[in-house]
């Protein structure tokens, strides 16, 4: 007598769909290889765990809000011979998240800053780390909208507590009040508690110019720079290089 038809609805009732999907296959495998009952059960449990892990990963990835499939695998490292791969791999390992420090990425438009930031974010998501990606404009607009609906504190805390927050295109548009205060409060709340990745077209020495209140800007940047990993991408626009099929001229410097 085949018990599988009777087991399937019971497994679904227990929300063990991973076992349901592979039950017949694992049953054939157990018969063919004469597996013991514990070994057979272990395979079914592994299938269920794998299904749940994949579901959690898909949820984290969707919630992160990345722009397309900007992964480390899709970034053409071979086209950038001066890029410090060991440094990139160190960041991709996500130890900086355990250290609760920032990663600051600067360089001209089109040199791959946003791609690398999101690629590191993808690595974090794969490790089970909750991640959110925003442009500076989108982030501050999000907070402004929350303030207008009396949901500011709830939204602020969600941003403050996420393990990895990626802010793209910092300084692309000058900050206005209360945007500079919102950004300062967010960075201050995350300081030495969570990790933040920030990309900017501005040189590091120019970041303070984005703040109308220079004192507030200095305080914000002081917290970001403390023990931060820094990455500078140099050269022509990567987009232009791809269009011309000329993969030369993109360099990188790094320091911690």
TrEMBL record:
Q: What parts of the sequence cross the membrane? A: none
Domain IstB-like ATP-binding intervals: 11-241
Cite the InterPro entries for this sequence.
DNAC/IstB-like, IstB, IstB_ATP-bd, P-loop_NTPase
**Protein's recorded name:** ATP-binding protein
What is a biological process (GO) this protein takes part in?
DNA replication
What are the record keywords, sorted?
ATP-binding, Nucleotide-binding
Q: Name one GO molecular function term.
A: ATP binding
Source organism, top-level taxon: Bacteria
């Amino acid at each position: 007598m085949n018990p599988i038809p009777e087991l399937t609805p019971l497994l679904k009732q227990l929300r063990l769909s991973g076992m349901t999907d592979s039950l017949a296959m694992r049953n054939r495998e157990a018969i063919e290889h004469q597996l013991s009952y514990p070994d057979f059960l272990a395979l079914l449990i592994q299938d269920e765990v794998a299904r749940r892990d994949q579901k959690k990963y898909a949820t984290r990835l969707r919630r992160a809000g990345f722009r397309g499939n900007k992964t480390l695998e899709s970034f053409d490292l071979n086209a950038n011979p001066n890029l410090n791969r060991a440094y990139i791999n160190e960041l991709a390992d996500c130890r900086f998240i355990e250290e609760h420090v920032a990663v600051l990425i600067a360089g001209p438009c089109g040199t791959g800053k946003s791609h690398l930031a999101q690629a590191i974010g993808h690595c974090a998501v794969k490790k089970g780390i909750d991640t959110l990606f925003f442009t500076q404009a989108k982030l501050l607009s999000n907070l402004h909208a929350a303030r207008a609906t009396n949901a500011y504190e709830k939204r602020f805390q969600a941003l403050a507590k996420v393990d990895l927050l990626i802010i793209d295109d910092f300084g692309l548009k000058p900050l206005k009040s209360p945007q500079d205060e919102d950004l300062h409060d967010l960075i201050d709340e995350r300081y030495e508690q969570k990790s933040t990745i920030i990309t900017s077209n501005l040189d590091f020495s120019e970041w303070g110019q984005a703040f109308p209140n220079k004192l507030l800007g200095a305080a914000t940047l002081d917290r970001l720079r403390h023990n931060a990993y820094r990455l500078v991408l140099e050269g022509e626009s990567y987009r232009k290089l791809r269009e011309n099929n000329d993969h030369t001229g993109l360099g990188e410097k790094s320091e911690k």
